[in-house]
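Input/output pair, single chain:
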Amino acid sequence: MGKIDLLIVVTVISLFISLFLVFFLLTVKTKYKISNVLFAAFLLITAIDSCEPLFNLTVDSPSNLGMLRNTFAFLQIPVFYLYVLSVCYSDFKLTFKYILHVLPYLIVNLVLLPRFYAVDSASKIDFLVNRQHMIELQFTHILFHLQIVVYLIAVFRILRKTKKLYLENYAGASINSYNWLFQFTSVLTFLYLFVFLKNIFKFSDYPYISEWIKIGIMVLVLFIVCWYLFKALNNPGLFRNVDSKLKLVSDIISEEKKNESPTENEETLSSEIIKLKKYMIEEKPFLNPSLTIQDISKDIEIPTRELSVLINHQLGQHFYDFVNTYRIV
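Output:
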């Protein structure tokens, strides 16, 4: 089997599985509808970006449609970023402000307009043949890789903050979902490193190496899609979101120091700790697998903000760990 044949086979398999997963995400009954739609959009964009071998079989020469298909990659990582936001925060809504994430895609196509979209086929061929010297394509690739770095950093920051918020405010088993999403993003980062390497060789004196790396990328994409498909089919309600209005305890303490808010004396803190521990032993709220700090706050009549500081700061434990110590006993 030749290199081209292998690429086409892998592309067809990946495309079929991606479309099947898209269908599943859009039709499965779940309260996480926005998350499913966003990930379905991510998969569709990835499929469009990956179907180049099939597209080239139907088109003999460079075309505007082909270039639009290529630039669709600029929508991939922003959609994944929005997906992560929707997974992490229960109050996430798609608003008009998120249209800003489309700007790189629009800018790139405007840059390509004069010397690619607006010229004849012969000029398009010449443009691509001399791609190593075309400033528009160099700008496109630099912007693409810069965009990936910025968005991946943003995603990892969101995951880190959200996991910490979860530990400070929730005690369910859904923490494993955030660990898995972190792993998924790490694998995606590894994939983009391959893409970066492919593009380096594409503009070098060894473009044939780029083609072999492309096959590796397609196999990795197939693996990622199958991995997510396995997770989605076995866990249709994979994630539990947190409220984006929640604040980290470290931020609460910083605000109190900045505002010079009076802190509770040791006697008050001791009485609240005794009250909390007595409640945990007598009422056994830890038997609720979806217990939140808000639930306990309501029952023992200590404001959520104060209770969070009491457990996560004064007792030196995340709420998640605090509750699980009673579950183990």
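The two ends are 60 Å apart (CA to CA). The mean pLDDT is 82.
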